[in-house]
Amino acid sequence: MTGISIDRMKVGDAAEFAKTVSETDVYLYAGISGDFNPAHLNQAYAEKTFFKGRIAHGMLSAGFISALLGTRLPGPGTIYLRQELNFLAPVRMGDTITARVEVTELIPEKNRARLKTTCRNQDGTVVLDGEAVVMPPKAPKS
Q1: pTM of the entire predicted model
Q2: CB 74 within 8 A of CB 9
């Protein structure tokens, strides 16, 4: 399976992926990444922080963008080159996060695409935004 090559993409193309963040997701991410910050794992500690409770790792939400780029737009075969991220609001266990990518620029001579990236929670609050640059897969040879 191959994703969408640059000659088949257009500015405005978009894709979304939604997932409810669970307690298990946060613990698994901590184990995989090694990020055992108590703001994510220790309720007593987290209650004393700015957020007044535990929050999910910001990079967990950013991973949803990676999932979109690698599976939907442009999809399989895409090389992720760059990502700018702005973390704007906390994500808590039980939040449903919808990641979205939208093509904003195509650079065919370099086989590059620039995409606006966002994650929103179930209330529509933008929790993360930024911009990605990817190298879409090459068109299959016929």
Answers
A1: 0.92
A2: yes
CA 101 to chain centre: 8
Count Cβ atoms below 10 Å from residue 55 Cβ, excluding itself. 23
**CATH number for the 6-135 domain, one of 3.10.129.10, 3.40.190.290, 3.40.190.10, 3.40.50.720?**
3.10.129.10
What is d(CA 113, CA 73) in angstroms, rounded to the nearest whole number? 10
Sheet of 126-135: strand order equals: 14-20, 96-107, 112-120, 126-135, 79-87
List the helix and strand counts (H, then E) for the chain. Answer: 4, 5
CA dist 77 and 85 (Å) reads 23
Condensed to tens digits (0 to 9), the pLDDT of residues 90-125 reads 999 999 999 999 999 999 999 999 999 999 999 999
